[in-house]
Design goal:
binds 5-hydroxymethyl-3,4-dihydroxypiperidine, four-stranded mixed sheet, 17 strands, 16 helices, TIM Barrel, alpha/beta
């Protein structure tokens, strides 16, 4: 892969570089009971008092279900080459297994055709967290049957859209589905049990492994991948305890997914750690890892922020060294504490902005795991946007974030990493899970009471980047 530089700051992307935008079904569609859609775990969770900020829910969200044409026109105006969306399993098979709901398929048919009409490549994610509730009632991702049910769902979607969709993503961020859903309980279904989270981790990967051959057998030209949320993990100091803590954090977020997919095994240190929890990885059957490590065509990487940690016994030293130390961790079993560097910019999610972490992560994946094509399937930032008196959203902080991170992608390409595309998260402000509508990630403002869309400054900036296939190089302050 080649890229070139024409002046001090202009960075050109390869001519085939794919520029895109991403969304997910539950976060934007609304219409939660329309046209035969069944309930998902996120309907149940968001309707549980206190589970989501302000008791917000996805009943209406961006009402994309009814405003699809307007959203397609926004995408055409942005001139993206690809749109990454997810299909809602409960729209297509409302009970999770069995009867297929044709009206659910019809909705995505209109979407795929609308994209094709506008020369935008559909990039289809098969699972972005909205598990049909009836499957959760039978154990959800903690049981093997759910992986089998997913395989049957994949077959329906592949048969329906195989002729029109080339790029398929089996799962979005299985770490969140398993560890936030069943471990910390911050996400649906809201269970707090480390042993169940580990079992869910495995069954999600199994679901991916079962889906790959179905996609290949059904669609001759399918390009199949999986999207992982990964981070660059840094120890707060060179103390061996902190180095070990960073290794544990990396083990939970990165290696529990990358190792089975690319090396066909779970990391020994993580297996040893989680052997204390039941059922944990005892749910792994002989042959599962061969399924999980079946060859794929690309890796989707979602990156937002680096992670810096110390061993929990060293919190006081870290404070003395000038860090702000988190008071606890969502996974106490890992015995670590997250650090904030005072003075570093952070997003409205309180995530540190550090684009160099993206380059480091991409180089690490290339060196340790795979030279397969990589797509940045999500990257973006929430900020406290507002519509100004002139009717504009001047989100220059988001522009800076995108500029720095797209520059970091360019750095990775220059370092020889095979990055083939970038999808901004997100096209629209949307339902940000446990944060409800309090966090805006969109490059398009959504006025939730009315549904009105308003492209932000970042939308116009991103459109220029796409049109010129360049970015003016920028680094996050304090980049290492
Ligand atoms: O909104 C989410 C998305 O659904 C998955 N990746 C992270 C985003 C921001 O939190």
């Amino acid at each position: 892969m080649t890229s070139s530089t024409t002046n001090d700051r202009t960075r050109h992307f390869p001519p085939t570089f794919l520029w895109g935008a991403a969304t997910a079904s539950y976060q934007i569609e609304g219409a939660s009971t329309v046209d035969g859609r069944g309930p998902s775990i996120w309907d149940t969770f968001s309707h549980t008092p206190g589970a989501v900020w302000n008791d917000d829910n996805g009943d209406v969200a961006c009402d994309h279900y009814h405003r699809m044409d307007e959203d397609l026109d926004l995408m055409a105006d942005l001139d993206i080459g690809a749109y990454r969306f997810s299909v809602a399993w409960p729209r297509i098979i409302p009970d999770g297994t069995g009867q297929v709901n044709q009206r659910g398929l019809d909705f995505y048919r209109r979407l795929v055709d609308g994209l094709r009409d506008r020369d935008i490549e559909p990039t289809l994610t098969l699972y972005h967290w909205d598990l049909p509730q009836p499957l959760e009632d039978r154990g959800g991702w903690t049981v093997r049957d759910t992986a089998e049910a997913f395989a049957a769902f994949v077959e329906v979607v592949a048969r329906t859209f195989g002729d029109d969709v080339e790029r398929w993503i089996t799962l979005n961020e299985p770490w969140c589905s398993s560890w936030l859903g069943y471990g910390s309980g911050h996400h649906a279904p809201g269970i707090r049990d480390i042993g169940m989270a580990a079992a869910a981790n495995h069954h999600l990967l199994l679901a991916h492994g079962l889906a790959v051959p179905i996609l290949r057998e059904t669609i001759a030209q399918a390009k199949v991948g999986i999207t992982l949320n990964l981070s660059d993990h840094r120890p707060g100091s060179e103390d061996p305890l902190d180095v070990a803590a960073a290794r544990r954090a990396d083990g939970n977020l990165n290696r529990l997914f990358l190792d089975p997919i690319f090396h066909g095994r779970y990391p020994e240190d993580m297996l040893a750690h989680y052997s204390k929890f039941s059922p944990g990885f005892s749910v792994v059957h002989e042959g599962d890892l061969e399924l999980i490590s079946r060859p794929i065509d690309f890796l989707g990487v979602n990156y937002y922020s680096p992670v810096t940690v110390v061993d929990e016994s060293r919190a006081t030293e870290a404070r003395t060294a000038g860090y702000i130390v988190a008071t606890g961790d969502q996974f106490p079993d890992l015995c670590l504490r997250g650090l904030e560097t005072p003075g570093r910019d952070r997003t409205a999610m309180d995530w540190e902005i550090q684009a160099a972490g993206l380059t480091a992560l991409l180089v690490h994946i290339r060196d340790e795991y795979s030279t397969l094509p990589i797509y940045i399937t999500e990257n973006g930032a929430a900020f406290d946007d507002y519509v100004d008196p002139n009717g504009r959203v001047l989100d220059f902080n988001r522009v800076a974030y995108l500029q720095e991170h797209i520059s970091a992608v360019h750095d990775a390409i220059d370092a020889g990493v095979n990055v083939q595309g970038y999808f901004v998260w997100s096209l629209l402000d949307n339902f940000e899970w446990a944060f409800g509508y309090s966090r805006r990630f969109g490059i398009v403002w959504v006025d939730f009471p009315t549904g009105t869309r308003l492209p932000k400054e970042s939308f116009h900036w991103y459109r220029d980047a796409i049109a010129s296939n360049t970015v003016q190089y920028a680094q996050s302050p304090g980049s290492r």
